[in-house]
Design a protein that fits this description.
mainly beta
Length: 345
């Protein structure tokens, strides 16, 4: 069941809609502004509804906020070194919205545009045309994202095609706290990530071009542990990020497989993450410090599990060899990420 209502108008006068997708006792609210998922409500072990996703109450907060709460990210998610990349010898300079790099698509990435929304079975289809030259990226890129919620599985399906060779590496920036958004810290949630390596980063959080084994480090989540257990360990990569903000390479071979799991002892809510993307960014909300729906969001109040491309592969041949974000004209970009919810007694 899907319900549609007006959520508000942007500062420029564009109407933004909210779609509520109901899946039994579960529900999700999806906005056409930034493709943001405003809430994700699932029952706890007692059957009580719990909103496990960070977000805002008002459209103005989404317009002015910079935390990417629940938003779609593109054209290129994460950091792009030097805010540039090359295709066939031609260099493209894109928006530099960090001192040295481009982050999450630039000043006006996919999180800051109004998408066209359409009700589909068990969900919503969002569409957007990213025009040639937008934020410096080549090609008219037609993007379609489908959010569905069915039988406890919340899915994000990406599809895009450009009329020129271009770069695309989308992700969804949901922040989770299975205790409930804004209620308590998310550091006591248990996390498990199926990964043997991360990308070590420099002081500007750009991967160095190398790989780092997680075994014996704070980045080893192959056995479930509390997210905050090693959050402040004496580790150079953690110090650079002021916590977790790192790209984990997945073992799925780009097959749609389980890559991570989270669990709250307090609510009994568990969440399994599946994807066919090659990497997962774990971000422990290190710089979040603001009011949101459900309460005040302090640093480390939640965590993002962003299935995505390998960070900065457009500029690092060793990363591109594993998975490239360069797409030729007419070549389809198509990936899927799902979050399956349940409870443990």
């Amino acid at each position: 069941m899907v319900e549609k209502r007006v959520f508000g108008k942007t500062k420029s006068g564009e109407v933004v809609y909210a779609f509520t997708v109901k899946d039994g006792e579960r529900s999700a609210v999806i906005l056409t502004y930034g493709g943001a998922v405003q809430s994700l409500v699932v029952p706890d072990r007692e059957g009580n509804p719990v909103d496990v996703l960070l977000g805002y109450d008002t459209l103005r907060e989404y317009e002015e906020g910079d935390a990417f709460f629940g938003a779609l990210i593109g054209r290129v998610g994460n950091r792009l070194g030097g805010a540039k990349f090359s295709i066939d010898g031609t260099e493209y300079r894109v928006s530099r919205n960090e001192p040295f790099h481009s982050l999450h698509g630039g000043f006006r990435g996919f999180d800051k545009v109004v998408w066209q929304g359409e009700e589909i079975e068990n969900g919503v289809k969002l569409s957007y045309l990213s025009k040639d030259g937008e934020e410096g990226y080549p090609g008219n890129l037609q993007v379609e994202v489908r959010y569905t919620f069915f039988n406890g599985e919340f899915s994000v399906d990406y599809h895009a095609v450009s009329d020129k060779a271009t770069a695309i590496a989308m992700t969804w920036h949901g922040y989770f706290n299975l205790n409930g958004a804004g209620r308590e810290s998310g550091t006591d949630n248990f996390l498990q990530i199926r990964s043997d390596e991360i990308l070590p980063s420099d002081e500007n959080l750009l991967p160095t071009g190398e790989f780092r084994k997680v075994k014996g480090t704070p980045f080893d989540f192959n056995e479930a542990k509390r997210m905050g257990k090693d959050l402040f360990a004496d580790d150079i990569d953690l110090k650079h990020g002021k916590g977790y903000d790192h790209c984990f390479l997945l073992r799925n071979g780009k097959r749609f497989e389980k890559c991570a799991e989270a669990y709250s002892e307090r609510t009994g809510i568990c969440m399994e993450c599946f994807t066919d993307l090659p990497a997962l960014q774990l971000y422990s909300a290190n710089y979040v410090d603001q009011k949101g729906k459900g309460g005040y969001y302090a640093p480390n109040c939640a965590y993002a599990l962003e299935a995505q491309a390998i960070t900065n592969n457009l500029n690092v041949p060793a990363y591109a060899k594993l998975s490239s974000s360069l797409y030729r004209a007419g070549e389809e970009y198509r990936y899927r990420t799902s979050y399956r919810f349940g409870v443990k007694q």
